[in-house]
Amino acid sequence: MQPHSESWSVVVHGGARTIPDPERAGCVEACLKAVRAAAAILSAGGSALDAVEAATRMLEDAPNFNAGLSSVRNAAGDIEMDAAIMDGETLALGGVGALRDVRHPVSVARGLLPERPVLLVGDGAAKFAASIGAEPAPLIPLVTPAVAGGDTVGCVARDTHGHVAAAGSTGGIAGKMVGRVGDTPLPGCGLYADDELGAVAVSGDGESIARTLLATHALWSARDSTPTTAAQAAIERMKRVGGEAGAILIDRLGRIGIAHNSRNFSVGVASSQLERPHAATRADDLKEWLE
């Protein structure tokens, strides 16, 4: 590990799901673009919080994933999005649920960090988004067959100051009940960040993730194991309730871990120790850079 003042790392994901062969190259490229955006911030000495927001915004704009511009529709034919962001230095958390008509839900979530509430939903989230001048979504959403089933995007990072952060964003499940909020904005379920432990973001079957507190268990496991082993142990908990999931994790030292029980998991990694960013649609394809 490099000296504290020089070391940084970042991981992004585009969701744990089965990705048809023709769509994999696009998912890899989208993850590379997002992780490069975060890496540019971190390598210049920027904050983990800025890095995870920037990467997640890029993933929200990508047509390959179920978030932001490409979010799926609910049972009423409307788009309702969830997002969250957490600062590991202060434990500040911002989350939004069932948010409509916004291009970048993760930035609305970040706007909540200085505020008292940690989660706003529905009309309350929409009013808050308007109050901070959040960019509206285009009139015609870009839903594509590639993301018609659902899932999540996310990012975790550790900066050169030793601070960590996590972010996530999703359109939820296609055809979901109106007002349904998944695991993504729930602390300890869809994500968590704490400088004393690390940062984690997960993806998959939201209700199962919430029932098992997947993010919490991943970080607690990372206290006395490698990041990949910790992520794998958390995924194993899913057997109690069933369902697919994937987890990206950076521990307090900046070591990277990825695990999933889904067929595919779009991921991208970069760090001060790697010559260049790498991305793949399976964790096994990146295992030489994981710990």
Automatic annotation (TrEMBL):
The active site is at T152 (nucleophile). Coiled coil: none annotated. The record marks D151, T152 as: Cleavage. GO terms for cellular component: cytoplasm. One of its GO terms (biological process) is proteolysis. Keywords: Autocatalytic cleavage, Hydrolase, Protease. InterPro entries: Ntn_hydrolases_N, Peptidase_T2. GO terms for molecular function: hydrolase activity, acting on carbon-nitrogen (but not peptide) bonds, in linear amides; peptidase activity. This is Isoaspartyl peptidase. It comes from Candidatus Andeanibacterium colombiense. The lineage of its organism: Bacteria, Pseudomonadati, Pseudomonadota, Alphaproteobacteria, Sphingomonadales.
